[in-house]
Amino acid sequence: MARDYTIENVYEPGYKNFSPSEDSPYLGKQGLIPAKQLGLTTDPRVANQIAALSQSLNQGISVMEIGSLSPQVFETIPKQHFAEMRRKAKLAEAELTLHAPIQGTDPSGFGQRGWEESNRLLVERQLKDVIDKAVILDEKGNMPITVHGSNTYGSNFKYVKDEDGNRKKVTEVLMAVNKETGEIVPLKESVQYDPEGGNLEKGDKLSPEESLVSHNLTQWRKDVDKILFEKENADRILSEVYPVAGGYYHELQMKKKKFSDFSPAQKEQLLSLQTANSHIHQAELLVHGLFDKAYQYGGKTKEEKEEIKNRLKEFSKNYQKNLYGGYSLEELENLKDENKRMEAISHRNNLQNQSYAIQALAEDLRSLKKYNIGMLQDLESFSINKASDTFSNVAMYAYEQKKDKAPALSIENLYQEMGFSQGEDLKNLVVASREKLADKLSKEKGLSKGDAEKVAAKLIGVTFDVGHMNMSKKFGYTDEDLVKEAEIVKKFVNKVHLTDNFGFNDSHLPPGMGNVPFRALLEALGEEGAKAIKINEVGGWFEHFKSSPFPQMLEAYGSPVYSSGIGPYWSQAAGFQQSYMEGYGQILPSTNYQMFGAGFSQLPQSLGGQQGQGREGGGRMGGGGF
């Protein structure tokens, strides 16, 4: 039976065609980005970057990021290509920037077997090689080189509601590193049942941070107790035997007599004292080892480290005086009275004196527990210390080549489950790196403190990746939470990576195809973000859809069609041609019958068909294609 169909708005009225659709990822009138400011990456999978650059320049793209994912692929690019790419960009009046390789290159020094200083030095040398190539590529100076702040595990954070119903940010998983072995240890919220009190029904909850403190305190206490255990075993023997056999044990030690010179009863007593000596020797090894750990690994901040070292110096002097009868080693060396010197050495050889000195030092070391000196440290603060060494050294290397016009390091935020996903951690890394660089410039190059700080600020900044930040949504972050993170680092930003996803995977889609709050994040970056180079990192589109995402970028950002900057805009393309981003466009244009009437094979290649999108076949955006 025939049915009546009504189709409304078959023809779109004139000027309405130039009004953005509600479904458009348009940034708003104040957020228009001209095409000349829209940067794009080359295909990061290939070494033939010079061909990839040419293809992009042919489309009219005027800001390009060169780089590859793999160090092996990056090193396949001949150095002559960097010079040729610089010349091509200059001819096209385009601006170039660079992305350092990321695979297996953690600036802190983490590798498959955990942290090793040799790994950090290797990455430092690799980044210096990147600087050498960036110098060739850099036409104007201070070209930002994006470097991942981390390529290893990182802590996870989430938002929860407290007892008053307010949302607060907490740590879900704290990644910690054993400073001695380099091993990474994940710490989660745990429940503890205390026989002396607490809630025995539900237990007492320990946050990951509290678990870290508890672990370190427990381990520090155990290490001190091991020393005292060995010392007490020696003391039991000494209390019974030393008053009787101490004299001839001393004669044996000073080689005044041989073991065979003693009677069987005396030999038995001497063997007991040898056992006591073994316990003392073991306690001595343990207390020296614990002292070494405290000196090397104690404290998080520079001030705290200095305070601990000063206390340890005092402990050391007291230990020496307990061993040498009131003399420190320095005093003993300057002692002119030979009899007193021999008395001091004799005091050192007395087992009971050694036992007392060890116990006194062990108790001194126990008092350091308030500094939480255990071997476990949260990975972010550990990495800040190590990675800032790498970045400051590499930036210094760049300065030595081109002074304050050197290429600039731009440290990129990562997504959760990797290091430096949070604004505060990234900020602390940049600050630490700049401080170390400024210190080097002052001491080694003679710059004033003010000038050194200005150079450091110019040569070390941040690449803010909106897509990486958006992936925190799978941990309960809202758009407002992401904006707060962006505001923390905005004054350090010298480059922005624009890429879209749905909050779960680093999809690298063109803008407007996921749920990244582009407008809010760009506004949060303020003036610094507005001035920064903007690169659309859309490698996923290259890989999966085999076409340039430039048309989608133009639509998403509402770029003006004409260089004068006035409308119409590419986001309004639905009004005068078919558009991928703006719904259906005009109903039944003349090419509709050719494309859709002959089967899906006539669709563009990017949509699964066989229709070309070059100049011969035309593109969805109109004549000429991209």
Structure description:
By secondary structure, the protein is an alpha/beta fold. Helices cover 47% and strands 12% of the residues. The protein has 20 helices and 16 strands. The strands form four sheets. An eight-stranded parallel beta barrel has the order 1-2-3-6-13-14-15-16, surrounded by six helices. Strands 7, 8, 9 and 12 form a four-stranded antiparallel β-sheet that branches. Helix 1 runs parallel beside helix 3, helix 5 runs antiparallel to helix 6 (264-297) and helix 6 (264-297) runs parallel beside helix 10 (351-366).
Tell me briefly what this model is.
The chain is α/β, with parallel strands linked by helices and 626 residues long. It contains 20 helices and 16 strands.
Could you report the average pLDDT, rounded to the nearest whole number? 84
Shape: elongated
Largest beta sheet, briefly?
A: 8 strands, parallel, barrel
* Terminus-to-terminus distance: 47 Å
The helical percent reads: 40-55%
CATH architecture of the largest domain: Alpha-Beta Barrel
Q: Would you count the extended β strands for me?
A: 16
Let me know the CATH homologous superfamily of the largest domain.
Answer: Divalent-metal-dependent TIM barrel enzymes
- Fill in the CATH topology of the largest domain: TIM Barrel
The domain count comes to 3
How much strand content do the residues show? 5-15%
